[in-house]
Amino acid sequence: MQNIMHNLINKLGQYQNNTDLWKNLEWREGTNSQGDYIDENSLRRKELLIALQVNLPKARISKNFEQFLQFLLKQEIDDRGNDPFQGLTESLTRAGFLLARFRNPANVWLFVAAKTANFDTHCGFDWEYMLSAGIKETFDYVEAKEHPLKEQFYNYFDSRQNCPLSQPDIDKWFTIKQNTYSSSSEIAETDLSFWIDLAVELRWIENVKQLLPEWIQNQRWDSSSLRELKYYQNFIEDWNGQIQTLRELFIHEQNEYLKFYDYCELAELYLKLGNPFLAWQVVLECKSVLPLDKDKLGELGVNALDIISYSQNEEWVKDVFIFVISHQPHYLSLEYLLKLVAACQQMNDKQAEERFIPLMEAEKQRYNEIMMKNNSMLGRASIGELDC
């Protein structure tokens, strides 16, 4: 715990005292090993945002920290605006609330930009952020200023008189957010779960490994604590440990719905370990011990489809392919259809391939149309136009 705090304090001090380093925190588009979009500096910013959360007492709130948070939030907005898969991130909401604590009406434009960064932020980024400086104070400021995002602010709050939120609503929201983003002074140092969860969010694997044995010693095992352990084991990539934990869960878990998804996860773990045959045995075990409706069989079919892609076309794989063709999920997503067509080709089943290719192409077309529609709905001003 002390190591985590020490690292956070050091990182914050390095950047807070040297604005020349801020360029290392700017949004920067890149790709991961799978070729998917990433922001190359997102983790650096996350570390500093968490450092600000757990190390910044109210007494130290200053204009200097506000400018730093404005900068960090701008980068998070650029990240959300440029991610082709859109999404709402914890860093965006954390940066937003830490900045909202300053109660500065001039930050309204950043909150509008965050709200309109993409379709998911439009739906999920709280609109209370835009009024967090106070309803009267915010409307006074917006009415007196000209800004490229002024019209978009009024798309959410058309007038002071018709504002759907009251000041008590804002105050209640603020209290809830304050409880969510507590500082370290409000967390007991002996709260191992808090510090492990913090290390997980920071992706500090070695800290999690150091704290986990003590956490394990203090547990009374039931389905809840076993699930928490499984989450930590997944983070540190202890696949064999996860398999043992899942087997324990089969004993403790009474909820058949949850147990079904535990079987699915166990099959996925065997695939990670390069053993598709054991993954297939898990599917068969699940089918034999749990009552499964058509939808659940379809979800097992998704696991079976992955098993085919990991296999070497051994004789038993023919049974897996029959299972896949017989049991499909209710919704055939584009990702699923791409895998299904690939499986048909792998199994050299031309008839099945001809059946599913038109469905795959139609889903591609539908997906492209949705993406174009979402992008056209949200005309986002360049973050460079924001004036805070």
From TrEMBL:
It comes from Xanthocytophaga flava. It comes from the Bacteria. This is DUF4034 domain-containing protein.
